[in-house]
Specification:
Blueprint: E1 3-4, H1 10-17, E2 22-23, H2 25-28, E3 36-41, H3 47-58, E4 65-70, H4 82-88, E5 89-90, H5 92-95, E6 100-105, H6 121-134, E7 135-141, H7 143-153, E8 158-172, E9 186-196, H8 199-204, E10 209-214, E11 218-223, E12 229-232, H9 242-252, H10 278-294
Parallel strand pairs: 1-2, 1-4, 3-4, 3-6, 4-5, 6-7, 7-12
Antiparallel strand pairs: 8-9, 8-10, 10-11, 11-12
Helix pairs in contact: 1-3
InterPro entries: Class_I_gatase-like (IPR029062), HST_MetA (IPR005697), MetA_family (IPR033752)
Active site: 142 (acyl-thioester intermediate), 235 (proton acceptor), 237
Subcellular location: Cytoplasm
């Protein structure tokens, strides 16, 4: 079944070229089913790229999904046009009285700032608090996961000596959560961040289980037992060349960043990177949609 999105959304053409079934709002309105209502709080600077990456993973399911894109009203984007935001995005005030089956909160390149220093932090805390009552399950990604762990549980983040960038091996440490159904005992996933959360701090809450971790990259996946809060510290949605583009950008800006680990063949940044995490990225999002959202959300949501 398709992801429903506006006809002119740039992601649509990309996904259709990959033979992913997408549907216009008009056609979806004639379907005699209730689609899952999924909101995406897109905090990434280049929003069109992030939209495409996330919608690609959300499409890998037999469920019909109705997408609502949200941006921060309290932040002026310098990398996404006002016309694009006006055409395809809503703000939290537009949807604050609504209920959603699922919510995705993306990462953002602000992890070296204290949370309170982020200009849209007050608005994001409103969304995080609202999600606990108006959303069946929320999937937090990278800095979005750090923000939620801090807001909901008081878990702090720690700055690392250098940027953590690369594709790292992880092992399953949890067994009870349906989010990891079908996962290999060991799998790889990308990370790209300057800060970290510690497994001991997460587990000390007594409310969150660490489901997968890496000896090099630390916690990758954690969730509450009821699946209403899922935290992913990496970027399973990344394209094959995303880390390469980030590395080139950082080098052009004169930042002392390392070559992404375990990413380029022979650690040669001129080599063509290969996507080795696509399968588990799709599986993670499909499991979240199925087990945490679809099987738990009521057919008749609250008004």
């Amino acid at each position: 079944m398709p992801v429903t999105m506006p006809y002119d959304l740039p992601a649509r053409a990309v996904l259709e070229s990959e033979r992913i079934f997408v549907m216009s709002d008009e056609r979806a309105g004639h379907q005699d089913i209730r689609p899952l209502r999924i909101a995406i709080v897109n905090l990434m600077p280049v929003k069109i790229v992030a939209e495409t990456q996330l919608l690609r993973l959300l499409s890998h399911t037999p469920l019909q999904i109705d997408i609502t894109l949200l941006h921060m009203a309290s932040h002026v984007s310098r990398t996404t046009s006002a016309e694009h935001l006006e055409a395809f995005y809503s703000t939290f005030d537009d949807v604050s009285e609504q209920h959603f089956d699922g919510l995705v909160i993306t990462g953002a390149p602000v992890e070296r700032l204290d949370f309170a220093q982020v200009d849209y932090w007050p608005e994001l805390t409103r969304i995080l608090d609202w999600s606990r009552t108006n959303v069946q399950s929320t999937l937090h990604v990278c800095w979005g996961a750090q923000a939620a762990l801090y807001r909901h549980y008081g878990i702090g983040k720690y700055e690392m000596p250098q940027k953590l960038s690369g594709v790292f091996s992880h092992r399953l440490t949890g067994r009870r959560s349906a989010v990891i159904t079908g996962f290999d005992d060991e799998f790889v996933a990308p990370h790209s961040r300057y800060t970290d959360v510690r497994a001991d701090d997460v587990e000390a809450t007594g409310e969150i289980e660490v489901l997968a971790r890496s000896d090099e990259a630390g916690v990758f996946l954690a969730a509450t037992p009821d699946g209403r809060q899922v935290f992913v510290t990496g970027h399973p949605e990344y394209d094959a060349d995303t880390l390469a583009r980030e590395y080139a950008r950082d080098r052009e800006q004169g930042l002392p960043v390392p070559v992404p680990a375990h990413y380029f063949r022979d650690d040669d940044p001129t080599a063509l990177p290969v996507n080795r995490w696509r399968g588990h990225g799709h599986l993670l999002f499909a499991n979240w949609l199925n087990y945490c959202v679809y099987q738990e959300t009521p057919f008749d949501p609250p008004a």
